[in-house]
Amino acid sequence: xxxxxxxxxxxxxxxxxxxxxxxxxxxxxxxxxxxxxxxxxxxxxxxxxxxxxxxxxxxxxxxxxxxxxxxxxxxxxxxxxxxxxxxxxxxxxxxxxxxxxx
Length: 102
Description:
Blueprint: E1 2-7, E2 10-14, E3 19-23, E4 32-42, E5 45-48, E6 55-66, E7 70-76, E8 81-87, E9 90-101
Antiparallel strand pairs: 1-2, 1-4, 3-9, 4-5, 4-6, 6-9, 7-8
């Protein structure tokens, strides 16, 4: 059984027990979070739209962290102009616990 959920204008395919990295959520470690369900596939087939409107996906926040550093390096050839910048994107790791009907 799996579900397609929406968070922050992005869609994720999740199953029970999966650990998913979302863009930073406003939740503390250990809190439960619910997600908007777009599609559910189980032994009875695929449910989309109004058919899965009563479904919900619940997950537990495992950690708030930053991903690996990405280096942004800009330069202009033959002009001795260089600019180096790093970026670490914050994320929230969530363990998917249940996919159920409301």
